[in-house]
Amino acid sequence: MRYPKLRELKEAVTVIFSRRFTTRFPAQPCVVPHSYRGKPQFDDDDCIGCGACVNVCPTEALTMQDDTEAQTPTRTITQRYDTCIYCGNCQDCCTTQRGIKLSNQWDLATLDRSSTIEEHKYELQMCEKCGAPVGTKKQLVWVGEKLGPLAYMNPSVVLAKKEALFAAAGSMARSSADVSEPAVSDFARILCAQCKRKLNIRL
Fold first, then answer.
1. Distance between CA 101 and CA 45 in Å, rounded?
2. Percentage of the chain lying above the pLDDT 90 cut
3. pTM of the model
4. Nearest to 93 by CA among 61, 60, 52, 59
5. First to last CA, the chain
6. Mean pLDDT of the region 147-175
7. Domain ranges in the chain?
8. Which CATH architecture has domain 34-124?
9. Quick one: which of 36, 34, 75, 69 has its CA closest to 52?
């Protein structure tokens, strides 16, 4: 029994005079690896509010709600990183590939769970025929820029892009929702998929 005790004493003395194996956090900040999967961070410039990240979130840490009754129809994406498992699905499935990314933020402990909730709002584009949501205005503009000349195959995308360009001047005022029968003039309006289908079938 004597020799095992001496071995343990030797290991204890060796550890005392050896350099530390652990970090000095919180006295000193901890530097995480470059590939560390930390808090998902939205980029308001590149996020278009399409909701792709919401659809693939396994824990519903990301949720989406459309308020079509507001004076300015709005889509709200709510992020709760207290229930996030940092799987990276949101980053991998982002439409723009830059709208949401996993950051290196890891020290997220808090005593107030309400502080872990973030909201991101986007203006909705409504169908000018039936009033149904088509998508966010940023999404339609992004699709138009991505398609380039091919965007002219979809009048809704072209009109949405022009509306964004001239919104400040107010020269692209759009008509309100109209549930009347399809007319030729509807080709120059921003329509949802259902109204566009009816227009193409009946005309």
1. 13
2. 46
3. 0.77
4. 52
5. 97
6. 70
7. 34-124, 127-203
8. 2-Layer Sandwich (3.30)
9. 75
